[in-house]
Write a structure and sequence with these properties.
The chain is α/β, with parallel strands linked by helices and 163 residues long. The chain has 2 domains: 72 residues, Helix Hairpins, CATH 1.10.287; 66 residues, Chitinase A, domain 3 (Roll). Helices cover 38% and strands 26% of the residues. The protein has 3 helices and 7 strands.
Length: 163
């Protein structure tokens, strides 16, 4: 089984930034433990502030572990030079149930419907990845049958810096 998680350059930078931010937040919370324990009394089990701080630390630590796990499985995908097939890094104009839309296929966690970015592992992208222009795909999304025609495939916006 392939455990790889695919990212664009933009997506891997976003993941690394999240790790830096979570690490900083975890350090800040850990520095508060002595003060919160002291202020709340010398019995840690009756110190609600300390207990909440420990819960926050555990939550951040779990998120950090999950994010590191993603990073360890990360594979950075370059935009394809050939746009014969729908792939990560391509823009695809489709007709779905009589409605035309254009999506850029991006890496894990990069979906942003407002910017027409669609992660490769979403139900819609999963149906069209590997398909070519003119191909018609029938599938199920959210329990509903859908018909998708691939109208055009072009190179995506690439990895121009984004937020």
């Amino acid at each position: 089984m392939n455990d790889a998680i695919y990212f664009t350059k933009r997506g891997i930078e976003k993941l690394k930034k999240e790790i830096r931010e979570l690490t900083k937040k975890l350090e800040d919370l850990q520095h508060q433990t002595a003060h919160v324990a002291e202020v709340g009394g010398d019995q840690y089990h009756d110190n609600a502030s300390y207990e909440m701080l420990v819960i926050d630390i555990r939550g951040i630590d779990n998120r950090l572990a999950a994010t590191h796990s993603c990073l360890n499985k990360a594979v950075v995908v370059e935009p394809p030079s050939n746009t014969d097939l729908v792939a990560i890094g391509t823009c695809v104009r489709i007709m779905r149930d009589e409605e035309e839309t254009t999506w850029e296929i991006v890496g894990f966690g990069e979906s942003d419907p407002d910017r027409n970015l669609l992660a490769y592992n979403t139900p819609l992208a999963s149906l069209i990845i590997g398909k070519c222009q003119g191909e018609i795909v029938n599938g199920t999304i959210a329990g509903k049958q859908t018909k998708i025609e691939i109208l055009e495939i072009s190179r995506g916006g690439g990895d121009e810096s984004t937020k």
